[in-house]
Amino acid sequence: xxxxxxxxxxxxxxxxxxxxxxxxxxxxxxxxxxxxxxxxxxxxxxxxxxxxxxxxxxxxxxxxxxxxxxxxxxxxxxxxxxxxxxxxxxxxxxxxxxxxxxxxxxxxxxxxxxxxxxxxxxxxxxxxxxxxxxxxxxxxxxxxxxxxxxxxxxxxxxxxxxxxxxxxxxxxxxxxxxxxxxxxxxxxxxxxxxxxxxxxxx
Length: 202
What we know:
It is an enzyme of class 3 (hydrolase). This is protein-glutamate methylesterase. Keywords: Chemotaxis, Hydrolase. This protein is of the alpha/beta class. Helices cover 26% and strands 20% of the residues. It has one domain (14-200): Methylesterase CheB, C-terminal domain (Rossmann fold, 3-Layer(aba) Sandwich), CATH 3.40.50. The strands form two sheets. It has a seven-stranded parallel beta sheet, with helices on both faces. It has a two-stranded antiparallel sheet with strand order 5-6.
């Protein structure tokens, strides 16, 4: 499925209170373009699911800590969300958002069954975040080789949140963006460079 690569003006950065990003194959390279674009003064929390080997520790927080202006952490169960922080789902656990006590959402980890052959799964994060942030959520689906993220992006759309799909022509593997585009009409279809420019303005 093809999609236009022109940058959309329909994304309203003023509405964004939380960002969820999902990626699979090629995701480390894609995230290396996007996450460093976030400026130190950004107050939006960012939650990332990247499909990982379930039997090995993740080094994502360490890898990106030296590249990003915002602090990077591996998500911990029942941890309150801190604004202006990038959270990575740990291997072999689904990452979810929960209302929890207090004013801020809390993180939750689950060892429930694989979703789309994955744990962590993008759909699980996106759907739980849509329940918490509603119209103030931005969901981004990047490169990958399966359809994880498509249903989650639809949930964000139905909650009146904003959605971006990486231009399949710009993706290392186009299957995941194409699956998302076959499921929902996003707010924007953008290249990595265009998404990075948007994030840098937050």
